[in-house]
Structure formats: C-alpha cells, structure tokens
Queue: 3 jobs
Job 1
Amino acid sequence: MAQPFQVSIDVAHPGTTQEEWYDLRGDGSTQYYLKHWYPTDPSTKEVAQPKAAVVFVHGFADYCDRYTGVFRVFPDRGIQVSGFDQLGFGRTWHESPNRATTHGWTSWPDQFRDVSCMLRLTRARLDERWGKDTVPLYLMGHSMGGGITAAFFTRDPASPPEEEVKQLVSGAILMSPWLDIHFPIPTAVGIPVMRSVLRWFPTIKLPLGPPSKDLCRESAVVQDARVNPLSSCYVHVRCLYGPLSGGPQIVAEDYRRWPERLPLLICHGTGDKVTRWDCSKKLYDHLKGLGRSVQLVSFTGFYHEAIFEPGQDKVLFAQTLVDWVEKQVEARGRPLPPANERSVP
C-alpha cells in the first residue's frame, strides 16, 4: 500500500503517535483503524496528561494517516488528538476482507453512530487514566467530517445521535466544512435525481474522477491524492446523499438547534473551490444572530485542505485550531467570549 505524502510542521515537542485496530461499534462487524497523537513529558518521554482531547473526523476520500505530521502541533501544546478511518474509507475500508463491495458504504446515520462510539471510547479512556471529566473533550471535523460535526449537534432531537453523547463534547471545530459544494449540477436538481437513483439502485457506485487540482496549493498533496489508493473517489453514492441534502439544510434551518452551551470555531479558506466558504459565513451569521458562542476565521486565498497549504500557511491554520482549544480550556468555569469573526490575510 502506498504511503501518503507527509506534510509536517516542526515543533519542539511533537509527542508520540499510536495506531490500533478496534471494534468501534462493539458488535464484531468491523475493525476500525484508529490513530492517536499524545502529548509527552519532555524529560521522560512518557505520555503526559493532556489539557484537552480532540476527536477528529476526516473528510471524503480521506484518512487519518495523512495528518500525522501536521497534527503534531496539538501534543506540542499538551492536547491529545484521536481519529478513526471511517466506515468505507481509509485503512478501515482498504484492509477489510470485503474491500471491493464496501468502499464508501456509509451514510449519515452510520457516521453519527461511529462518531458517537468514538466519543464514548475516548471519554471512557480519558476518565480511566486521568480521572472522570478531568480532560475536556472536543469534536473536530474536516470537509465531509466538518459537515458531520455540524449535523451531529443539529439533528431533530427524536433522531440520533443521543443527547447523552452530545453532552460529552465541550466544543466543536469545523475545518472547511461540507455544508455545500461547488457542484456542477445545482443542488435543487441534483438531490431529487440522487434520491430517485438510490431508490432504484441502492448499491450504485460511481467514479467521481480524480481529486480536484484545487484541493490544495501544495502540488505534492494533490498528486498524492490522485495516486494513493486510499484516496480513491470511486465510491457508493449513498455516502454522498447525507452531506449533499443535509448540509444546505443546516445552513438554511437546522442551525437553530445548535446547543446554547456549545462553543464553535469555523475555519475556512476563501479560495476553497471544493466546499463553499460563503456557506460557512452564513452559518456563522445565523448562529451569531442567535447569540451562540461562534467564531469564524477566514483564511484569504487558502484552498480546501488549508492545513496542508505551503510554507507557513499550514502553520498559521493549525495554530489557529490549537489556540482556540486552549482558549476554551482556559475559559472553563468562566463566561465565554462573545461571538466574533476575523480574516487572516
């Protein structure tokens, strides 16, 4: 299996990484690939108690190992990150015994279930090692994972995920979220067509073509996404229906269900030609209008995978994420700052 092109950020204390295979659902059906980035004690190199922990949800045709070098900024500042390759993607899919029939075989209900399992697992492990509720837990998603994260807290209360799981989370981060995309077919046309196709052909798969050349301004990242088998875009259509139909609904209406207690950070490049920055801006404006604790940081000219952008741009993006988590940890027990927006030139 090809190794991903590694983008790295130099830090003084990168911590340590660990990978594992885990029956995330606990039903014996699937082994999920999990990746962890742990802070360490500089003197002993042993895993140190984190000031916060983040559960990461990757994007479409994406997987956790791509982030190995850039997520080092989190343990450098004492923050743990734990992610998993989603059902139908990454190594969870590629190393499964039925790889040919399961690529992208997932949906929003499946993904909500898996995120819930990952949150419960991470919370239980943190409590066992460091004490109950000692380490606050945050949920962060990129692209498709960003849409899942936004949807996770805005579903109808009668549907999953359960409120008990939402309460485990102290804050959320959306990275270039898939709330809508620069789609060649208008959403109003594409969604009814897709709904009809899935009704008659529920297992249909489509080759969506190679990843866009506008994925990132780092050309090596784009090239790797085009040749690495883990980034294949030939997937089941059913995994696209949730974000294509539900993402715009979050911006239009479902944002009203965003919990009053839950702070949110949205980071998005204005040059993103994959997911729409203007939808992130609309979501921010709507939530701000409701008085929610929300911050939008717009990165001028950054492309979709902003955390892999060339030079210091990726550092600036990554540090914004870490700074926000630290700010939330410091604010625990104190009033949160008002909603705000800023742009990074």
Job 2
Amino acid sequence: MQGKDISGHAPGGQRQRLADALPLDTPFVVQIFPVYACNFKCGYCIFSVEKESRGFISDKNLMDFTLYRKCVDEMAQFPRQIKVLRFVGIGEPLLHKKIIDMVGYATERNIAATTEIVTNGLLLDQRMVDGLVAAGLKRLVISIQGTSAEKYGEVAGAKVDFSRLLDNLAYLHRNRGETHVYIKIIDTALDGEADREKFHSLFGEYCDTIAVEQTVPIHKAIDFSLILKDKSNALTQFGLPLGQVSVCPQPFFHMQINPDGKVVPCYSWDYPAILGDCNTENVREIWNGEKFRHFRRAMLDGVQHASQTCIGCNIIRYRWFPEDDLSNDTDRLKPAFDCPSSKC
C-alpha cells in the first residue's frame, strides 16, 4: 500500500490554534456548494430522506457560473489568501457541468493556497481527471462507499461498475500531477477487520493518504440507530475523543456560499442563520459585516445564545479538533466582536 494511513488524525494535517489567530480578516476556509443534487442515496446522508423532509436548503439547485466568478473576484479582495477553497456541500460537486472551469478560475485568480473537491468519485473518468488536474486542483477527497458493487448498492443505493471505478482511480493516480489524493471510507461501510484490510488493499495503491473515518450521528432527519447499531459514539468523525462544545468555532474561520448565493456560517444542513447574499453583496463585506460579527459575538456567549439550531447541533461535536477550542478565550475575544458604539 502506497497511501499513508492517517486514520485518527486531522485529514488536512497540523492545525494552528484558532484562538491565537482571531479575529480573521480573511476566512481560513470558503466552502463552495455548487450543486444541490447527488447520484447516490447513502443511508447516513440527507439524500436518503425525502426532499420535503430536509427543510430549506437552497432556492436553486445549480450555482450560476457568472455568480461564481463574481464571488471569486471578490474573494481576491481579501488581504490574504484563503487557506482552503473547498467544493462540497449537500450533493456531488462533479455533477456541475462547469466544475473544471470553476477550479480553473480559482487557480487563475490565485485566491486560495489549496483548492479542494470532496466527491464520491463515481464521475472521475479520464476527461474529468485530466480537466481537474490541468485546472490546478490541489486536493481531491474521495469518499468510498464499499469494497464491492454489492456493498455500494447497500450503502449508497446505487448500481456501480466497481471495476470501472478502480480503473478510473488507477488512471487518476498515474496522472494526478500535483493533486493530492485522499481516499476515505466510513467504518459502517466495512464488514469487519477483513473488509478493512480489503479496503486498504484495493484503494491504498491509488492515493497519497487513506483513512477509515467514523460514522457519526450528525443529522436529525436520519435514524442513525439503524446504521450504528451497537457501535459506540465515543469518537469524532476523525477518530479523536468526543467532548462537549460550548462555543462553535466554525463561524470564526469558515463561510459557505450556497448554489443560490446565500451565505451560511457553518456546515450544518439546518442553517442557524443566513448572513448574506452574494447576488447583491460583496463576499469580503459579508465576511466582515454586521450580521457575521453579531453572530460570532453571540456565539462567544455560548451556543445557546447563537441560535436554536446551534443548541441541538451535533456536527461540530463530531468534527471537533482541540486546536479549535475557544472556550478558554471567550473573555479575551469578546471585545474584538463587540458592536462599535457608532453602529449600535
């Protein structure tokens, strides 16, 4: 196996202590949510739930390329490079017909140190691989759903040509250039230790890093008891010890731009707030604007003060990194997010 096993570690590598960097004039992570659609219906994902039961997601299913270019041009106005521009969201990013052009335009404008896509990998044919590599994609995260076509049917509710999938990944590995390939799978998609070894054997040759991540109960609309069964929930998605979160760090370093241009502060599918609209507002001004500042300041008083959604949210608890803990720095940070007297 060539891929380095990073199970139990932060997949992006060493993280800096967030509290020491705040407040940020440039987000560490901007998440582009390009398409609200998926070719899978994984049981642990919201696409296994009927659309009317998901709540509000987006007024549009596809991000308009003109809007995307506007957003990138405005991200170029930040004082620093974004650390990560990530194409993900609620759906499969490679379904967007302009995804290669999106990556290419971000590379051309040099707005991010790393441009990343999180994908299920089914559409990674030779044309897609060649296009993304040439466009300057720095990191490709591929979420595998099983070690056989039968397992894909069980986990993802999809018919998959498994041999073709492996052939495409082999082509990707040979032609990845400077693109880092990370292949992962959730533990409940594996049937015991022998299947885990099979996963590493099948996919370890086609990546730079590889991991088995934990299945975690982060979406209220899904009955995770059927998926987790007797599995303990004592670990985060990345295999770290689980703890309580009194202050969510996500709005302090991250923003997500949805297909309709609306901006939300975190990874939650049940939005705690919509903090801007890129159709009518500037991305940099949204990040530094009153709505974001007010939301962050409320969060420093605890999740119960930020929004009702935040009170019951499990996402950050199960995607927690100790470097992001702000609980011991709230008093020091609050003045930086207090409302200027001239605006109150």
Job 3
Amino acid sequence: MTERTVAVLAGGLSHEREVSLWSGRRLASALRDSGFAVREWDVDGALVERLRSDPPDAVAIALHGGEGENGSVQAVLELLGVPFIGTSAPACRRAWDKPTAKAELARAGLLTPEWVALPHTTFRALGAPAVLAAMVDRLGLPMMLKPDQGGSALGAQVVTESADLPAAMVSCLAYGDAVLAERYVTGTEVAVSVVHDGTEPRALPPVEVDTGDGVYDYTARYTPGAATFHCPARLDTPTLAALEETALAAHHLLGLRDVSRLDAVVDEEGRVQVLEVNVSPGLTETSLLPLAAATAGTDLGRIYGAMVERAIRRG
C-alpha cells in the first residue's frame, strides 16, 4: 500500500502558538513512528497554496486557540475538500464559545456550574461596580473568571475578594471580548479524553489534576512538576464510570468528531460538573490525553493513525 501522507498543522497566530508547536512536533513524531509520511506546516499565508498544490491524504490539526479551534481552519479544509482529523467547522464554533456549549449541555441535563457571560461593553454602559456587585450577589465568592472563548486557561483566575474583581476582569478581557463568570465549585478536577480510534468513540481513563492549593492555569499546565496527575483518577468506580459517560454524552451532544477532551470537577457531593469541552486537546509532554492513552495501553501514533484512516474514508 502507498505510504499515507499527513500534514500536521501547528503554530498559527493565537496566544497559544508555542503550545501548539509543542503539540505538533510530538504528534508528527508519533505519526512518523507509525509509518506515515509527515509534513509539518505552520498556519500562515502559504497554507492554502500548499494544500492546493501538494495535497496530503489527510490533515491532523494540532492547533490550539483561535482559528484552530473556532472552526475557521476547518471551514477552509472543508472548502478545499481536504480530509482532516477532528470536528466539523459548525460544531467547532459551538464548542469554542463556552457559554453556548454550557447552555446546550445544561439543556440536555448535564450539570455545569451556574454562570453569566457578559461583553466588556456591558460593564462600560451599565457601570462596572454595579454589574460586579450583582455578579457577587448571584454567584458568590470565590468566583471563577475566564474569557468566553479560548483555551489553555489563559486569562482564567479564581477571585476570592470583591476588591480584586475589577483587576481580574481587566486581565480576563485581555484575552477576549467577553467574560464568563462561574460559581466556583470545589472538588476533584478531572479531564476525560474521547477518541474515535475504533468502531465507536470511547473515553480514555479519566486524569485527576492535583495542583495543591493552586489553580490549574497556564503555568501549571505547561510547567513540568507544577501539577501532579493521577490516571486513572483516584475516585470510586461509579464516579469514574459517570465521568466517562458524561464525556461521551458531551461529545455527542455538541456534535464533536474523532477527538475531544472534557474538563470537569467532581464536586463534594460526588456529582460531575462540566467546565468546558475542548476540540483540540493538547499533546505536549505535560498534556493529559497522552497520559490517558498510555494508561489505556495505547499511544498517540496508534490513536491518531486510526483517525487518519477514518478521515480519509470520510473524504
């Protein structure tokens, strides 16, 4: 059989460019080890011409943030008729917007922390002090703030004092035009990756994230040793099963394809509270999908190799 050619897309111009490059290099190496001919392409002005003049058999997307997760790159690939691993453009847009995704999952009966999403114009038009006071009255403190779009926990922070809210809002809005404020839920933070490397999508073993007394922010995600991971998570069997069921349900409800990652908290009552769903999970040395894959007895090359074949058959 002719060797399959895969173009791994990484980089781009988002705030998460460096993380994307790390993911791309690791994915490219794994696919080469599995027998694929791999091209590593940045997402820039030359990409469309490359895809037209030298089309690969399939594209593997290792982009994080911006066009790589909001459906823009996926829409271009669909326009060009290039098979790719991952979710379609419309479903990417739905998952990328955190309030939209949370609303859809909540309507379907999944638990997610109570929230409000407001653009920066609301704070300017109605007066920031009054709006922030209303947020505290409704959601309480501590409160989780994050941009309504984006990944890698950029701009996300926990606020414990009302006096710290204005500065936290400004920091959060540096990464987006609107802020998502959530009721802070204490418990065990867990990530569950879903992959479609066989006949049906399956959930990999849940990974527990332990940051001590800290927050699982950008630094904790990508600094070796800043967080401790346990896979499978140190939870009882029924809770592990509930996490896997919730990840699969969210994957289907949002119309996701091939690969996704659910971020959740198991609260003090043992309930799974969905935080968000990611359509392009990180693949770096400190990322959670590779760890879950290893615990399940497989690796990135086998998982993504199977998804390459799926993408080609779809195309």
